[in-house]
Amino acid sequence: MTPRWPERLWIVRHGESAGNVARDFAYQQGLPRIDLTGRDVDVPLSPLGEQQARALGHWFSQGKEEGRPNVVLASPYLRAMETARLFREAGGCPEGTRIHLDERLREKEFGILDGLTGLGIRAEHPQQAELRASLGKFYHRPPGGESWCDVIFRLRALMDTVGLHHGGCRVMIVAHQVVVLCLRYVIEGLTEQEILAIDRAGDVANCSITEYRWEAGEEGTDGGMALVRYNVTAPMEAEHTPVTREPDAIVGNRG
């Protein structure tokens, strides 16, 4: 009988992106808008982000994880695809491993708030700033964008696909900060208050590892995926690669 869930599941945020760097600069300078051109989907990794992705691959290639993934899923955003590719090139998974792109892993969409810092949101869209303060980030959906709930809806479907097609496998998912957090909500059955408390405790580091393992239930009961560790930055630290934790840069006041 095919197992219901992966044997191992690693969830990784992409390496530092050019957008993360631009966001940092905008906040340091007190600017209303992040200086980025083109589509968010096309924002590449920074040179440091590339280094982080390779460090992650080296970590797995050296046997630090008791095995390498044999299934890799990635957001179709360039920064996530590049992270997965560099991870593979560095030996993090077998050379011929296909990187499966899945649009359900894309970044949270910010709609009319796209590209604005917190200052810019309050100046250009004060009503949205008030709504977000009232509803909270979990339920606030900016026009043309998504709430955390919307992201969770698509991730529930994604996890059904993972269970259906990759049961018993060693799976890695490469995506974005909000996706990492919302997957914790889905897999662990958390409440709004619990996941927002985790979010407040600190940002998800670039190329950090969140790991789950399958645990069988007692006789007559279902097993499930158990959290082993969260937001681990050991691969970067092992190679003296700087650890970065900037939120994704599409909007300073991230969802």
UniProtKB/TrEMBL annotation:
Protein name, entry field? phosphoglycerate mutase (2,3-diphosphoglycerate-dependent)
Query: Does Aminoacyl-tRNA synthetase appear among the keywords?
Result: no
Question: What is the originating organism of this protein?
Answer: Paracoccus chinensis
Q: What class of enzyme is it?
A: isomerase
Q: Which family does it belong to?
A: Belongs to the phosphoglycerate mutase family. BPG-dependent PGAM subfamily.
What keywords are assigned to this protein?
Answer: Gluconeogenesis, Glycolysis, Isomerase
**One GO molecular-function annotation for this sequence?**
phosphoglycerate mutase activity
The record, for InterPro entries, names: His_Pase_superF_clade-1, His_PPase_superfam, PG/BPGM_mutase_AS, Phosphogly_mut1
Gene3D superfamilies per UniProt: Phosphoglycerate mutase-like (3.40.50.1240)
Q: Which Pfam families does the entry link to?
A: His_Phos_1
Work out whether the entry's keyword set contains Protein biosynthesis.
no
The taxonomic lineage of its organism, from the top, reads: Bacteria, Pseudomonadati, Pseudomonadota, Alphaproteobacteria, Rhodobacterales
GO biological process annotation, one example: gluconeogenesis
Q: What is its EC number?
A: 5.4.2.11
